[in-house]
Amino acid sequence: MPELPPLPTISQLVFTGFALFTCASALGVVLARNLFHGALALVATLFGVAGLYVMLEAEFLAVSQVLVYVGAIATLITFAIMLTRSMMYGKTSPLNRQWGKTGLFAVMIFLALYGFVGSIPWADSAPAVLADESMIAALGVEFVTNYVVAFEVMGLLLLVALVGAVMLARDNN
Amino acid sequence: MDWLNLVVFPVIRIVVLFVVLLTGFAYLTLLERKLLGRFQVRYGPNRAGKFGLMQPLADAVKALFKEEIIPNHVDKPIYVIAPALALVPALLIWAVIPIASGMPAVADVSIGFLWILAIAGVEGYGIILAGWSSNNNYSLLGALRSSAQMVSYELPMGMFLVSILILAGDFSLVNLVDNARPWWEWIWLWLAFPFFFICILAETNRSPFDLPETENELVAGFQTEYGGMKFALFMMAEYTNMITTSAIMATLFFGGWRGPFAEEIVWLGPIYLLAKIFILLCLFIWVRASVSRPRYDQLMTFCWQFLLPLSIGYMVISALLAVFLK
Amino acid sequence: MVPLTGYLLVGAFLFSAGLYGALARKNAIAVLMSIELMLNAANINLVAFWRYGDTPADLTGQVFAVLIIALAAAEAAVGLALIISVYRERKTVDLDELDLLAG
């Protein structure tokens, strides 16, 4: 009698749920005809990714994801959609001429990645990590020691982006 | 058994929390009308029941039995889901607020501070979605105002939260209240409280910062197209938000459940917390009764040119204090 | 335990979907949203490799992910400012109609 595959564990079930949710809403982002629905699907995707981070035991990243992506970036995007709303319900197709070729290309890329990822025997289990509290502290230490240059450059980049965005969006009249 | 700790107790806590919060919401509306009445030298509602105590019940019955109208021109799924999305974040924040010595309302997440910040960022969505899906210029303008206002005031609010976090040196709200703080830290915290309170007023769209729903220019702002129970849900969101933010302020600035004998007698903790929340709620209503609404550009200028630099300065000084005095 | 492959596949899917959106959508804001999807795909991979790597005590993957999130914020701010100023000039955010340079 052939051996049955083992039953999925709870973490596998939860992962499958998050993964399907994330992928379905990502499809919604690129396929939605109504741009605002696409933006909402983006919010759902970002939440799904945050859920995946929690499953990977990176709680700090998960909350940062919600804080920065959902709280700030996605709000900005909905804001921009509302400001440019003459395009609200597309009377024309939301896709350009090359959508057919692009779609084929994207599917091929996914299949290639699928084959590639599937062919390598990755580790099935992971070593234990630090508790959250000490992990956040360790992350902070990393930023001011090993990655201090990247951290400072990031600060500078954010400042430049801030000034640039204000200059660009300012109404000159 | 793990089942008890993992499923049964949290569920019981959540149910109790919801019942308390929703009852609190109902009587907060009554409290507000009563107090506003007193501020304006009249009685306020006093017909339904003794002192008008049955008034919230009458309101609820009225909202429930109104006809549910969904206008033809709205984006239907989003229109229906928006009021619910406005309410959920206000309930979620409660998960991390400590209600008694060493006891959080639902779960002691190690990232309590970030949880507050993250959920506060999500809070605007209900209003944005409502304004957009109503497909009405007044609604859209209300939603635009509200999202701009919330994103802007989130910055100084976040800075103040980070300052408190630097001083506390711990992401957990439970530990924040449990650990004793030196006297200078309390004074330094209370200096920031008025400004934090202003940010909270703007975040909850409360008067005097209720520009997203100004009745004299935008009809009713983002909720123009809503009626019946869906409108009641927006009311519920606004008032639950008031309660939640009062609980946050009580926890951050006034020691949460702390009070005389609260450490020995555990059940005193929630009572002290409720008392502090009650006082802060009265502050909300007092402000509504006595401060007039600013213009929108004044609101934005105040945030970006005064509050934000101030909060950044506060954060720098807090960091220095934490390094040199702790 | 969920195998690493699962996370990598989600990442691959998000990346492909983002790629399709970025190349096939007409609306500039939609393109920006698709790029956010691709950044998220990269982030999932970074965090997953960090978690399943030999030394999760070394937080490099998370550091990179935090940097990418900050980068995405900067990108969205500048990108949307650009889109809004273009909209003010041309009254459209349709990329097919923004063809001043196409002789």
CATH architecture assignment name of chain C: Orthogonal Bundle
Low-confidence stretches of chain B: none
Query: Any idea how many domains of chain B?
Result: 1
Multimeric state of these chains? heterotrimer
Which shape of chain B, going by the Cα principal axes?
globular
Q: And the CATH topology of chain C?
A: Helix Hairpins
- Order of strands across the main sheet of chain B: 1-2
Helix content of chain B: over 70%
Number of structural units classed as domains of chain C: 1
Helix content of chain C: over 70%
Biggest sheet statistics of chain C: none
Sheet/helix structural class of chain C:
mainly alpha
Q: What would you report as the Rg of chain C, rounded to the nearest angstrom? A: 17 Å
Mean pLDDT rating of chain C: 84
| Beta-strand fraction estimate of chain B | under 5%
Sheet having the most strands of chain B: 2 strands, antiparallel
Task: Give the terminus-to-terminus CA distance of chain C.
Answer: 57 Å
Give Rg of chain B in angstroms.
20 Å
How would you describe the overall organization of this protein?
The complex is a heterotrimer of chains A (173), B (326) and C (103). Chain A has two domains: 82 residues, Up-down Bundle (Four Helix Bundle (Hemerythrin (Met), subunit A)), CATH 1.20.120; 44 residues, no CATH class. Chain A has six helices and no strands. In chain A, helix 1 packs antiparallel against helix 2 and helix 2 runs antiparallel to helix 3. Chain B has 326 residues and is mainly alpha-helical. Chain B has one domain. In chain B, 70% of the residues lie in helices and 2% in strands. In chain B, strand 1 and strand 2 form a beta hairpin. In chain B, helix 5 runs antiparallel to helix 6 and helix 6 runs parallel beside helix 12. The model of chain B has no long low-confidence stretch (mean pLDDT 81). Chain C has one domain: Orthogonal Bundle (Helix Hairpins), CATH 1.10.287.3510. Helix content of chain C is 75%, strand content 0%. Chain C contains three helices and no strands. In chain C, helix 1 runs antiparallel to helix 2. The longest helix of chain C is centred in the C-terminal third of the chain and has 31 residues. The N and C termini of chain C lie far apart (57 Å). The mean pLDDT of chain C is 84. The chains are: A mainly alpha (173), B mainly alpha (326), C mainly alpha (103). Chains A and C meet through helix 1, helix 2, helix 3, helix 4 and helix 5 of A and helix 1, helix 2 and helix 3 of C.
